Amino acid sequence: MTETLMPYDDAIAAFDPAMGLEVHVELSTNTKMFCGCSVEFGAEPNTQTCPTCLGLPGSLPVINGKAVESAIRIGLALNCEIAEWCRMARKNYFYPDMPKNFQTSQYDEPIAFDGYLDVEVDGETYRVEIERAHMEEDTGKSLHVGGATGRIQGADYSLVDYNRAGIPLIEIVTRPILGAGEKAPAVARAYVATLRDLLLGLDVSDVRMEQGSMRCDVNLSLAPKGSDELGTRTETKNVNSLRSVERAARFEVSRQAALLQAGESILQETRHFHEDTGSTTSGREKSDADDYRYFPEPDLVPVAPSREWVAELKAALPVPLREQRAQLQADWGFTDLEMRDVVAAEAVGLIAETVAAGAPPQAARKWWVAELTRRANEDGVELTELPITPAQVAAIQALVDAGTLNDKLARQVFDGVLAGEGEPDAVVAARGLAVVSDDGALGEAIDRAIEANPDVAEKIRDGKHAAAGALIGAVMKDMKGQADAGRVRELILEKLA
């Protein structure tokens, strides 16, 4: 069924959006949350399981100490209070990929609560309040076979892989984000991007959204302009890219506004986001907390981190993200506008890695913020999803610095690397892209350019050296962009000036 949509600007003019974001983060531990099974990604289905994570009778869980430490560090980095005493709870619901038919999570006693994270959008700072960050375990994975979408609708049958069941998760839940207006979807994206950078800096997760190790549920509701009451919310589940977080929020604004404008009500439900269309579709009616029949987990002792341990972890936290960026800006010599563009492109970490690999900061910024961001936008993917590494970008720039390539040829090398043709050196060799600096070959091309442009040559002989640009352009065209432009200019002036 095709949803009726209201134009986004019209929807924002009539309604105020409120958002709540729930981000699930898989922690970088060696074993699962309550057992010793491996958490390595990509193993054969159902090879990383045991009686505990399968919920077999008689098995008993033991909490992962490294996961508790990571949860505390995340909470501290988010300016949260850390509980002196908390415990796990059972969240009861049936799903095919829930081997125990309940999820071991936290309910009314999270390990971290009452924090905030500041994010920037178009030069404005928005404070996103954190309600809680709590520990839990992941579910398994359903694989729907047959059909065109990979979803259960239209599938011939379904399989279940329990390798992921029991992997340690932190769920970070915001309070309603209000007052962002038309920028609400952009604020949602900026929040998830900033949170991803923070978690990377803490080294608690690889936050690979495309692999599911960081996922965002987007809760959104609309209220009439000026209303103090929140509207009925929907929850778009498991959105797995920054771009999709923004698109899902925009779509729900337009969809809900159209329903409300027509006098219809919003159903409280979960919804699925579709990458190909940028739309959401209905999933299931959304349950409230009471429906999950939470009760304390009887097989696990409470978690009571000592104040001394929490203080030690706080003292060892990395420099806050805002300070890190200020220091990077100073080290790289970027203007405020250049750094703002880097942050907006979500390229801070990529540029840092490229500089660490040997590239000059301005060159790294040029390639990531301009060239590669454009390509990512054209392909409809995140910058981090492009099949090129910071080390490869640095290698291409090294070839430019050595005079082997110019910027035009470098872009062709990017083409080759992104197409999977190998490392930059291999692409240069295979495509024959090296700059020609041989005076003999250049001299022949210059002679052809002079013969074709006698009036320009005469101007240079008369001392108008600026006219050399026209001949240089002709030589570059003749040699398909592979001439050393600096050497071409020198030879032209030697011959004519």
TrEMBL record:
Q: Protein biosynthesis among the record's keywords?
A: yes
Origin superkingdom: Bacteria
Q: Which GO terms describe its molecular function?
A: asparaginyl-tRNA synthase (glutamine-hydrolyzing) activity; ATP binding; glutaminyl-tRNA synthase (glutamine-hydrolyzing) activity; transferase activity
Q: What is its EC number?
A: 6.3.5.-
Asn/Gln amidotransferase domain: from which residue to which, for each copy? 349-496
| Entry-linked PROSITE patterns | GATB
Q: Which UniProt keywords apply?
A: ATP-binding, Ligase, Nucleotide-binding, Protein biosynthesis, Transferase
What's the subunit arrangement here? Heterotrimer of A, B and C subunits.
Function in brief: Allows the formation of correctly charged Asn-tRNA(Asn) or Gln-tRNA(Gln) through the transamidation of misacylated Asp-tRNA(Asn) or Glu-tRNA(Gln) in organisms which lack either or both of asparaginyl-tRNA or glutaminyl-tRNA synthetases. The reaction takes place in the presence of glutamine and ATP through an activated phospho-Asp-tRNA(Asn) or phospho-Glu-tRNA(Gln).
What protein does this entry describe?
A: Aspartyl/glutamyl-tRNA(Asn/Gln) amidotransferase subunit B
Give the gene that encodes this protein: gatB
